[in-house]
Amino acid sequence: MHIHLLIPGLFWPEAGRPEVYSDLSLSALEVILAKSRYTESQPQGIEEWLCRSFGVSKQQDWPVAPIMLQLDGAGKGFDQNGYWLRADPVHLRIQHNHMLLADSQVFSISLKESIQFTDTLNQYYSKNGILFLPLHADRWYVRIPKIPSLQTRLLSEMIGKNINNLLPLGKESSAWHNIFNEIQMLLHQHPLNQEREEHGELAINSIWFWGGGMMPQNIRSTFNQIWCDHPFTHALAVASGVNRHPLPPDAKAWQHQAIPGNHLIVLDSLWGRTQYRNIYEWREYLGSLEKNWFIPLLEAMKKRITSQLTITVLNESGIKNFIMTPNNLWKFWARAKSLSNYGQN
Q: What is the model's pTM?
């Protein structure tokens, strides 16, 4: 079997901080990395990497919205051949003239609340033919009559960033900047946000437009089975006709279910912790990955149960690929070293 692990955030994003890795027992992962063949490439967001892996071309944006609509809008009668745009609820915080963005990883929002917010937006924008659809509590969609001349940035790349210079580009960007500002005013005045703040919750004071496009044709995959809890990976599996399974708790449980073939396993528990610089939880989850995945996968490689293990690490500094086969275990000169050595930019 060939196993491909996609692990965004495996290395801490701030180079030159070896103390982040201190006292972590990661012997199996360190052996795997040391024995592997290594390649590196330019940074990509997780959605971009997944699109490329499934043969999806970039339109004005990476077309996340129409692909996800196959999942979130299934059976609801939407025209899935038109242009769709994501408009996800976010919280903006002003700090030293910077406008910093936080997504639903750090706040909770119910579907009932989302419907109330989008009802207000639709009352204001329906006359322009812009319709907001809260198909999931934290995944909102916009249906637009015609394709806008607009280029947006992936929400996953905006976490914790100053968005002042990262707003949409294109011939119609000025109009969309105005919509962006109007929405902030509408949400700021919304009674539901006053209730949220009274209960100590973050206000939903903006949205982020991203992932617009038309449904791509011929989405395909080299993987026979996909294991994930990541929604966009799930949607790509559905679109490509590949069997998708929920992420098992560990590699042993995965081995009991897996059949021979080429497997993609998305381990994304570290990603949000690196985006929000949560060192404590990142270390905790990394230790769990060592115990639950890296140790049993290294044993499976030693027993030749798996013929190839690829680990793809997505970080802000770039993509790192580690490719290992059973024969690599004989590389006696490739000694294990601390994970901090791999995380350097």
A: 0.94
